[in-house]
Recover the amino acids of this structure.
């Protein structure tokens, strides 16, 4: 298992033995609707816990070019722009996350994407793990 | 059931006024509305008012006069102004009172808004990792819309260019210098595809509107518009909103779609009947998408409409005739009422250099905000 820092939230990520991530979500028992992030009572009469598909297609994207205000942003003072997008995960749900694995101008709607674990450094210097989506390279696809 | 009329309107200039608090700007707007209408505060039977970030509206009575009137504070985020108007509309329509006021004001610090995740029912990681920004939402909504419906960057720039051109003509606007499309396109990229000049900024300002019953409006004999519809709607399933960590795979309507439909039905008019429209333009793309969401054109037709100048003051459907949020800035509690102020001024022929020609009869206004709320008002020249 690779050396991953603790998840930024206990209820966000499931990590396989080899460190491969999946997003934790909930399915409403009555109507089958998926809810992400999982609500606090994800295992209850109303919801069952589920893992979301790990692959999908880029639904939309942008680039965050200025440092967000802190709080709520918890990243370091030194700022580098990052890409953000929504990815349609299979036929399940469309999830927002950071985009990685390509230059900032390297994203396009409908690109094939996969979920990856993403290191995140807090302003204090402590390290955490969050998630991101990266393009699926041709060879790997 | 009484008809509802707007018989007076006042505005504190939008932008930045360091010497006045938001509340003082609200008082300014109320006094101006009363003064222009020749009315006294003691004649006002009720008030609805609010701000998002600048204090409690009902404390204005210490400035305006302790008449004992019912003054209801409205705190409904981006729809604060629209909700205050909805309250005034319903109160007159019910016959409870026949003369009242709605006031909205605000004063925000510089820079993007800094929301707290817990207040929006979201986990901290969403804000901590830099995903909780209104600018990202607007950028991603228009980015997808452009790809699906063939809207170009040049059209985004044309919307902002028009806004600044209209702002030059509006006394209450904040940005009163023209900016050309090339400058707009080459200004700092904020959130792709939107540049600095394509976004509105949080700002300050205040608006007050005086509402009257039909009988009272006739007795007063003031320039007036009839409020034919006021509809506020929250989000339906499958909509795409600010601060959404995830979206349903089955896409649905927007709160604007359903508020718009409700307002047309209430007013008994169709989009073709509208002579002037004020649409939420948090950024250039929002105006474009809201043209379709409010029923004025099909998705993608905006590209040709804007190239043909149809949304300019001299076009077939003038949109955001005072420069909208792009030129006036966004004081959350005041924006929705500014749009109605502008329609009142246009329909009563008082818009001066920015007057829409041809005696406009029907005015349409639409405000949208987080977490997925839209308010639409339709007014008709009385």
């Amino acid at each position: 298992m690779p050396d991953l820092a603790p998840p930024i939230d206990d209820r966000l990520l499931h990590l396989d033995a080899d460190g491969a991530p999946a997003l934790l979500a909930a399915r409403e028992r009555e109507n089958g609707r998926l809810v992400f992030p999982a609500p606090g009572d994800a295992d209850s009469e109303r919801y069952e816990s589920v893992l979301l598909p790990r692959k999908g297609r880029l639904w939309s994207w942008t680039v965050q070019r200025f440092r967000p205000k802190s709080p709520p942003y918890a990243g370091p003072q030194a700022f580098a722009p990052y890409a953000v997008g929504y990815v349609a995960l299979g036929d399940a749900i469309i999830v927002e996350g950071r985009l990685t694995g390509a230059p900032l101008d390297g994203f396009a709607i409908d690109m094939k994407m996969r979920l990856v674990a993403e290191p995140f450094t807090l302003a204090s210097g402590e390290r955490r793990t969050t998630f991101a989506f990266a393009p699926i390279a041709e060879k790997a696809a | 059931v009484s008809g509802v009329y707007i018989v007076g309107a006042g505005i504190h200039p939008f932008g930045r006024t360091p010497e006045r608090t938001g509340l003082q700007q609200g008082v300014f707007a109320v006094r101006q509305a009363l003064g222009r209408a020749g009315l006294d505060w003691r004649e006002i039977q009720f008030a609805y008012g609010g701000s998002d970030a600048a204090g409690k509206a009902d404390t204005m009575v210490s400035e305006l006069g302790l008449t004992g009137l019912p003054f209801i504070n409205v705190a409904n985020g981006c729809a604060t102004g629209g909700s205050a108007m909805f309250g005034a509309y319903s109160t007159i329509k019910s016959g409870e009172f026949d003369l009242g006021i709605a006031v909205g004001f605000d004063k925000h610090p510089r820079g993007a808004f800094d929301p707290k995740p817990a207040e929006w029912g979201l986990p901290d990681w969403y804000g901590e990792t830099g995903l909780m920004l209104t600018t990202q939402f607007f950028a991603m909504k228009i980015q997808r819309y452009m790809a699906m419906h063939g809207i170009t960057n040049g059209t985004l720039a044309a919307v902002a260019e028009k806004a600044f051109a209209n702002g030059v003509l509006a006394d209450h606007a904040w940005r009163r210098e023209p900016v050309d499309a090339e400058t707009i396109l080459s200004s700092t990229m904020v959130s792709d595809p939107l540049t600095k000049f394509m976004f509105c900024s949080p700002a300050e300002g205040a608006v007050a509107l005086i509402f009257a019953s039909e009988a009272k409006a006739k007795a007063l004999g003031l320039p007036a518009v009839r409020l034919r519809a006021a509809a506020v709607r929250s989000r339906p399933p499958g909509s795409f909103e600010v601060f959404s960590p995830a979206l349903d795979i089955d896409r649905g309507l927007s709160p604007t779609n359903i508020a718009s439909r409700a307002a047309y039905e209430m007013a008994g008019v169709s989009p073709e009947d509208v002579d002037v429209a004020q649409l939420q333009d948090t950024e250039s793309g929002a105006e474009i998408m809201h043209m379709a969401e409010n029923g004025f054109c099909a998705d993608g037709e905006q590209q040709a409409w804007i190239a043909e100048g149809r949304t300019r003051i001299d076009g077939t459907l003038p949109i955001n005739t005072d420069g909208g949020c792009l030129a006036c800035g966004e004081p959350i509690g005041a924006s929705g009422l500014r749009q109605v102020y502008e329609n009142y001024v246009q329909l009563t022929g008082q818009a001066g250099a920015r007057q829409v020609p041809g005696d406009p009869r029907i005015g349409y206004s639409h405000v949208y905000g987080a977490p997925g709320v839209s308010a639409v008002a339709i007014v008709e020249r009385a």
Notes: Chain A touches chain B at residues 8-9, 11-12, 25, 33-37, 59-66, 68-69, 71-75, 82, 84-86, 88, 91-98, 109, 120, 122, 130 (CB under 8 Å). The two ends of chain A are 23 Å apart (CA to CA). The first strand of chain A starts at residue 13 and ends at 15. The beta strands of chain A are 13-15, 21-28, 34-35, 47-51, 55-64, 82-89, 93-99, 112-121, 127-135.
